[in-house]
Write a structure and sequence with these properties.
20% helix; two-stranded antiparallel ribbon; globular; alpha+beta; 277 residues; disordered N terminus; Extracellular Endonuclease, Chain A; 20% strand
C-alpha cells in the first residue's frame, strides 16, 4: 500500500503548500478544513514513494479520505463521529455514484458482474442526522471491494454497528474512526482490472474521552460474526501491514501506549446504535 507523503500532510497541517487535488465543486470543502478538524490526532501519514499517480485528498463534511488512483480505493477514510450525527431522518437511497471531484473515480459499473460488494469505508449509518452526508457516503471514492455475504453484510456490519453503539450507548461524546484496505503480496483485481481487491480491512478507533484506542483487522472473506472479538490487534500491526502511521499529532509516548497493546473489543451493544453500512 502506498499512502500520501508525510511531508504533504505536515504542510497541510501547518497551513503550507497547497493540496494535490483540483478545485472542489460546490458543496465540498478544502482539505485544510479537514486537517484542522482532525488536528487532535492528525491525519494518517505514510511512505513517500511508490505512487504511479498522485493520491487525491478529499474533504467532506462527514469524513476525509485519501483516494489512491493506482488501486482505485481509498487508502484511508477518517471520521470524527459525534453522538449528534447518529440520530435523524436521513434515508439510505443506495445512490452509488462516481465522484465528480475525481476524474479517475470508479463507477458503479466497475462492480457489475463480480462477486464483491461496493463496501463503504465511512458507513452511511454514521450520518443519520444529514441527508447530504448520507448521500455523500455513496460516492464511489468511499468504496472498496468487500466480500458480501459473511463479511460486508455480516461481521463488518456488526463492527460498524458496535462503533455507533459505543457512542450512543456508551456515554461518549465522539470517536475518531479510521478505516481502510490492506493488501497482500499477490495482487487481485476486479474482472475489468479497474479496482484492486484488498486482502483485509482495518479500523483504528480512538476514544479521546478515555484516551484509549483499538485496532481491528479483518480478512476480506466470509467470517463467523461470533468471532469478531478475535480480530482485535495491536495498531502497530496495522501500521506494519499498510505503511501508514496513525495519530501523528500525539507524542511518541502517547503513540506507543496506544499502538502496542492488542486490546479487547469494547463490548457489543447494538440495542440503540441503528443498523446499515
Amino acid at each position: 500500500m502506498r499512502p500520501v507523503a508525510a511531508a504533504v500532510v505536515a504542510l497541510l497541517l501547518l497551513g503550507g503548500a497547497g493540496p494535490l487535488y483540483a478545485a472542489p465543486p460546490e458543496g465540498d470543502i478544502g482539505f485544510e478544513h479537514c486537517a484542522s478538524r482532525y488536528a487532535l490526532i492528525g491525519l494518517p501519514t505514510g511512505k513517500t514513494d511508490g505512487y504511479d499517480q498522485a493520491p487525491v485528498e478529499l474533504c467532506r463534511p462527514g469524513y476525509a479520505a485519501l483516494f489512491n488512483q493506482d488501486t482505485h480505493n481509498p487508502d484511508w477514510v477518517i471520521e470524527r463521529l459525534p453522538d449528534a450525527w447518529l440520530s435523524g431522518n436521513a434515508v439510505r437511497k443506495n445512490n452509488f455514484h462516481a465522484d465528480p471531484q475525481v476524474a479517475t473515480s470508479t463507477t458503479p459499473k466497475d462492480y457489475t458482474g463480480q462477486k464483491f460488494d461496493r463496501g463503504h469505508q465511512a458507513p452511511a449509518g454514521d450520518f443519520k442526522s444529514s441527508q447530504d452526508m448520507t448521500d455523500q457516503s455513496f460516492l464511489m471514492t468511499n468504496m472498496a471491494p468487500q466480500v458480501g455475504i459473511g463479511f460486508n453484510r455480516n461481521i463488518w456490519k456488526d463492527l460498524e454497528t458496535d462503533v455507533r453503539g459505543w457512542v450512543k450507548c456508551g456515554g461518549l461524546a465522539e470517536l475518531y474512526v479510521i478505516t481502510g484496505p490492506v493488501y497482500g503480496a499477490n495482487e487481485t483485481w476486479t474482472p475489468n482490472h479497474k479496482v484492486r481487491v484488498p486482502d483485509a480491512f482495518f479500523k483504528v478507533i480512538y476514544d479521546p474521552q478515555n484516551k484509549r484506542a483499538l485496532g481491528m483487522l479483518l480478512p476480506n472473506r466470509k467470517l463467523n460474526a461470533a468471532d469478531l472479538p478475535t480480530y482485535a490487534v495491536a495498531i502497530s500491526e496495522i501500521e506494519d501491514q499498510t505503511g501508514l502511521v496513525f495519530f501523528p499529532a500525539l507524542t511518541k509516548r502517547e503513540q506507543n501506549l496506544l499502538k502496542n497493546s492488542a486490546g479487547n473489543l469494547w463490548g457489543s451493544d447494538n440495542s440503540c446504535s441503528g443498523t446499515g453500512e
